[in-house]
Design a protein that fits this description.
By secondary structure, the protein is mostly helical. The protein contains 7 helices and 2 strands.
Length: 181
């Protein structure tokens, strides 16, 4: 990154273990967030991890289907290298538009970006169609209906919020504030 003249800003929580030696990495600037702020704006919790997991499970399901068609006995058992390859492939499927959309949910990026937001929505809809098609295909394979597979597929259907839900006190405070203004 230094040779390519990249400049990197790394936002971290205020944990004391986050130390940085600028002389070792002159192209990286680390900024600590204010205390208790990370629970509000954690990007990875804002949908990036969920998106990655969904792509991983889709890839894993495709591999299990392929292994089932090939007559492999333990279709779900893969070695570490295969798992790493699935993870790499799944991460490559997480698009910049999806990550940008997650940034907007944290309020660290501007909310107004209709082109990216529309693109992220289209990509999410396409990913959902692929997941539904894959789920339908898996249902035709008897071995894919085992409990182990059902638990993996259930993980795909869990809806994860992209923003923290407000408490009743916070909602009441916002309502009162709106009356004062």
């Amino acid at each position: 990154m230094v040779h390519q003249n990249w400049r990197v800003l790394l936002l971290v929580d205020n944990a004391p273990l986050h130390c940085h030696s600028p002389s070792n990495y002159p192209n990286i600037r680390i900024k600590s967030l204010a205390p208790n702020l990370t629970t509000w704006i954690q990007l990875m919790d804002a949908g990036v991890i969920w998106c990655f997991k969904a792509h991983y499970w889709n890839e894993f399901t495709q591999l299990a289907l392929q292994r089932d068609n090939e007559g492999v006995d333990k279709i779900y058992h893969i070695d570490q290298l295969a798992g790493m390859r699935l993870a790499s492939s799944a991460w490559k499927t997480v698009t910049p538009a999806t990550i940008a959309n997650c940034w907007r949910h944290t309020r660290l990026a501007p909310l107004e970006a209709p082109d990216t937001n529309t693109q992220a929505l289209k990509e999410e809809e396409a990913a959902n169609r692929r997941a539904d098609a894959l789920r339908s295909k898996a249902e035709t394979h008897p071995r894919m209906m085992e409990l182990e597979f059902q638990q993996m597929m259930a993980a795909l259907t869990i809806s994860h919020p992209t923003e923290r839900e407000l408490t009743e006190e916070e909602i009441a405070g916002k309502v009162l504030l709106s009356f004062k203004n």
